[in-house]
Design brief:
about 375 residues; Creatine Amidinohydrolase, Chain A, domain 1; Creatine Amidinohydrolase; 2 domains; 6-stranded mixed β-sheet; 16 strands; about 25% strand
């Protein structure tokens, strides 16, 4: 049985446990998880139906059907023409899969228009959020998935290392972003996001990049994602273009130590919030607690932000195969910010750090 059929089987088991007749998965990360491929969803309806009994079935518009047959792990595909009545097509598919009544799981972000279409097609259908089931299935990664994440990390590290060695005063943030993006794409990766933050912009955690030119003695904070065969890694490093001030050195040292303490606490059965506490507690101890304004980390996989989330109040216990970032930061508004981010895998004995890029406060 191939990996995608194994995932379908595991999904059906959980659907049965929750008394659902099946679920509908729309194009996106969950769709890719079960089908092996991605597709852009526009105004035409398309989705994967996973019935409790019987084979899963893809419903695609005719112009996507050939691609689906070539790339998808799902064998049963129904296609429809633009001129056909989608409600009638959908009714036929639901009837064939015995999903025209009972409880059908749908994703939490399912568009209202799709909800309307389903309920108009069958008045007997009940809808329930299936996100908890799908999230649990994707929470721990297989060795095959981990290998893709390792490769993604290698591509990203090489690109960041290259751009750190070539960035200089006078370059704009946009120019730095262009360099790192091309470097990743040349190695068969994609760039889902790219944050290039110089000077005061480094104190704005989600500043993207702009026309600001890097100046002498600026902090330069890079936070970049790389997607390889669908799987995303996310690394941040902070350097100084010139000579760092004593305050920059102090803050960077605190962030690196906070991250070290958090990573060293990673092992099975530890609560996610404990990892956050290790980083946050140290930063608070050093007097910068108010300047650490986000969670310590987030899960990685088919999405750049997925479970588990490393934050206060999350009592979820860590399990082997979970992958997440550890990325404490300190942000001094109007001055500069520092963030250091690695990608961590929970192992049977502790952890594997996918990120080997050094964390020294480089003077570029």
């Amino acid at each position: 049985m191939n990996v995608y059929l194994q995932r379908i089987k595991a999904c059906k088991k959980r659907l049965h446990e929750k008394h659902l007749n099946g679920c509908l998965v729309l194009p996106g990360p969950n769709f890719q998880y079960f089908t092996s491929y991605t597709v852009e969803s526009f105004e035409r309806f398309m989705g994967l139906f996973i019935p409790l009994d019987g084979e899963p079935s893809l419903l695609l518009p005719e112009l996507e059907a050939d691609r689906g047959r070539r790339l998808s792990a799902i064998q049963r595909i129904t296609s429809y023409k633009d001129a056909e009545n989608i409600q009638q097509v959908l009714s036929s598919v639901l009837s064939r899969l015995n999903l025209q009544s009972g409880i059908l799981g749908v994703e939490g972000q399912t568009p209202f228009s799709t909800i309307q279409l389903l309920t108009k097609t069958s008045a007997k259908i009940q809808l329930e959020n299936v996100d908890p089931i799908l999230q649990q299935l994707r929470l721990t990664k297989s060795e095959q998935e981990l290998e893709k994440l390792r490769q993604s990390s290698q591509i990203l590290e090489e690109a960041i290392s290259y751009v750190l060695n070539t960035s200089k005063t006078g370059m704009t943030e946009k120019e730095v972003a262009r360099v790192v993006t091309h470097r990743i794409e040349d190695q068969k990766g994609d760039v889902p996001f790219c944050l290039i933050q110089s000077g005061r912009n480094s104190a704005i955690p989600h500043h993207s990049y702009g026309e600001r030119r890097i100046q002498r003695n600026d902090v330069l904070l890079l936070d970049i994602g790389c997607k390889y065969e669908g799987y995303v890694t996310d690394i941040s490093r902070t350097v100084v273009i010139g000579t760092p001030s004593e305050k920059m050195k102090e803050v960077h040292k605190i962030v690196v130590e906070a991250q070290k303490r958090a990573i060293e606490a990673v092992k099975p059965d530890v609560k996610a919030e404990e990892i956050d506490r290790k980083a946050r507690g140290y930063i608070e101890e050093k007097g910068y607690g108010e300047q650490f304004i986000h969670r310590t980390g987030h899960g990685l996989g088919l999405e750049v932000h997925e479970a588990p989330f490393i934050l206060k109040g999350n009592s979820q216990t860590l399990e082997p195969g979970m992958v997440f970032t550890v990325e404490p930061g300190i942000y001094l508004s109007g001055e500069f910010g520092v963030r250091v981010e690695d990608n961590i895998v929970v192992t049977d004995e502790g952890y594997e750090n996918l990120t080997s890029l050094d964390k020294e406060l480089r003077e570029v």
